[in-house]
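Q: What changes when adenosine-5'-monophosphate-propyl ester is included in the input?
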Amino acid sequence: MVSNRKRSIIMPPQPFVAAAHINDPMVYQQDAVDFWAARAAELSWTTPPKQTLSGEMPNCTWFSGGTLNASYNCLDRHLKTHRKNKAAIIFEGEHGDTRVYTYKDLHREVCRFANVLKQMGANRSEYITIFMPMIPDTVIAMLACARLGVPHNVIFGGFSAQALLERINDAGSKILITCDGAYRKGRIFPVIENVNQALESENTIETVIIVDRIKGEPPLVYGRDHLYRSLRSNVAFDCPPVDVKAEDPLFLLYVSGPDGAPKGVLHSTGGYLTGVGATHKYVFDIEEDDVYWCTADVGWISGHSYGVYGPLLNGATIFMYEGAPDYPDKTRCWKLIENHGITIMYTTPTLIRSFIKWGEEFPQKHDLSSLRLLGSVGEPISSDSWLWFYDVVGKGLCPIVDTWWQTETGMIMLTTLPAVSPMKPGSTGKPFPGTMLEIFDEKGKTVTEGQGVLTITQPWPSMPLGLLHDDGGLYEKTYWKRWKNRTAYYTGDGARIDKDGYIWVGGRIDDVLNISGHRLGISEVENCLTKHEAVAEAACVGIPHDIKGQVLVAFIVLKDGYFATRSLIETLRSLVAEKIGAIAQISEVIFTAELPKTQTGKTVRRLLQAVAEGKDDVGDLSILANPGALDSLRQFLPRSL
Ligand code: PRX
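A: The predicted holo structure follows.
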């Protein structure tokens, strides 16, 4: 075995390069606008765009004059080809139940769902909220919205009732699509109970459509709740797709921002589909017989772009799995790959770290020879994890694409192209063809080699349309006004560029945490903690964790008359989990008499971070108005994090 230190550059495996349909480095040389015009031409437009790109960043318009329908592009156009009877979705439930939808089947189910939505009064000026697990019906519901030109608002199924309610009301949704339950870790996950709990409070919902997953008999609220199975049997099998403008929204997706409140990011139809279709095809080198598995939940952007829209635009076969990766045991993922002949696996460093912890013996028990390409997304991957994935799962035969992007970018922005570029384990590679990302220093000057802030300096087709309810220019302020001298998109990530132009993303440099690949705004958690009557002040930091990437540590100053007790810690933990969901688990609560503050009263998180990580060197203390706070903090160092 070659030592890992010597494996800092890995060439794409020759058999892969020879068979790949994109292996020409000239793809990087094309003019960006021409490149995207050609990619857009691969979609089916009812009216072709008049102009590829107009306007200046951030107010760019892509494909103006063009009209199309997303569901038509994902389904109908394939029905005119050999793909009609090809599997669009192969699904396996946690209990091993399987379902296969051909493109024809999927088209029919989407049409029926769309007809139901029409009957229920779906309206193009509203957002339909979808709160569903990883089952094909979720994809069907999304495409049904798209068929009618109604933007969907998918909420991750693991969010708590409160988080769901907040997002429903912010979007002003009148229709909610959900299901009676889901299977997770051998138990029934109470989807409908969460919904009912959310809808006990004041809300905008008028209609709830409940899909059958667990053969449940949920109690129905008369006039509001409807079982989908009853509605489905009374509608036609066809539903004409509604033509929408390229810049009409396809969906809304909430993201945790640095300032606490979740923000609704709006994505377009024409630009988004162009970006996602092309990146999916090029980055994953999609071939006709691929069975492609994106392990991300459909409730996140990865699930939208590369779990649903990208693969369906390219007529690929999606593999979808409902349950936990270690249920009933740690061989589950490898069994899925073997049994379904999965050829491409796109997953997260968090899951890879769990695989490593569980041990090589599990993948080794299974025949993984169907795999030909591996992908990673969501957080930085260490070179050790990368090499483990490459050796143990890919057997040295599968290129790895480490793809950097965000909810806001909609599509992959940084990656290697699997049959074109050498791979550097731990690096996300270079900007995707037709895009431009640079590293800026604090003054907005481009760093050609070294450290700085990852920045996007040219328009890209799946740029967000903006944020929902943004009357005060929040979108521009948050993302586009970071540097006075240059208009460029601020990603919130720190990164390094090396002498070969490869980018190494370090992680968030704003007040956003990345826990198991999920974004969580620190102030969202802090706002929740300070709501408790005992809490005077709360400050949170994320510290490194072996599996999750980061975990949350909360520093709490109690009001007079309250005391630090075990039960208070538990109450605070569940308060946050109830408000946000299971991803917001507080790993450690540290009580302190005061928080370190600057003269202007701002909490110095850097110091809290150093303390939480148990560092002796906490850096410059001269900015502190209350240096004594440090001693108070140190008394409460966490035992084991
Ligand atoms: O910090 C970066 C990290 O995930 C953030 C975006 O999170 P979200 O909008 O939830 O989308 C995740 C899936 C696209 C980024 O700002 N991130 C994403 N991919 C990578 C990454 N960090 C390092 N390497 C990556 N490949």
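Observations recorded in class: DSSP finds 19 helices and 33 strands in the chain.
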